[in-house]
Amino acid sequence: MGAGPAAGGPAAALPTELVDAASARRWATELTEPLDTPQRIALRVWFDHLGSVAPAAEELGLHRTTLRRWLEEIGRLLDVDLSSATVRADLYLALETLAGPDDSPGALPRRGGRTYERPEHP
């Protein structure tokens, strides 16, 4: 049995040989376009915790209710049902395609201890 993500090994790289990088980034950007950085990071962390809110919220430094609200907002913004395995798979691949070194919970600006700054919407 090989050491993969389930065995605590490093996550496998995306299979970039299936599509060129520019096309993959374009697809991923179009799929996640309305999301801001905190929302993308929150969704990635939630995926990393297999859709479990409590440990994802703890890692993000958010209250569980706040993360649930964010997930509901993300679903509305993207017009998707986050309970769908197909939707989750597409979003996971898109977020991993776009992820950069600064896309981590620790890189997010803090305000008030446990809340991320959110841009003001006009």
Mean pLDDT score, rounded?
A: 82
What is the number of helices?
5
N→C terminal distance: 53 Å
Number of strands: 2
Instruction: Give the CA-based shape.
Output: globular
Low-confidence spans: 1-7
Main pleated sheet: 2 strands, antiparallel
Q: What is the H-and-E element order? A: HHHHHEE
Q: Fraction of residues in helices? A: 40-55%
Strand order of the largest sheet: 1-2
Radius of gyration, in angstroms, nearest whole number: 15 Å
Structural class: mainly alpha
Strand content: under 5%
Compact summary:
The protein is mainly α and 122 residues long.
Layout of helices and strands, plus pairs?
Blueprint: H1 21-32, H2 37-48, H3 53-60, H4 64-78, H5 85-98, E1 110-111, E2 115-116
Antiparallel strand pairs: 1-2
Describe the structure.
This protein has helices at 21-32, 37-48, 53-60, 64-78, 85-98; strands spanning 110-111, 115-116. It is mainly α. It has a two-stranded antiparallel sheet. It is globular. Mean pLDDT is 82; it is low at 1-7.
Features:
122 residues; mainly alpha; 3% strand; disordered N terminus
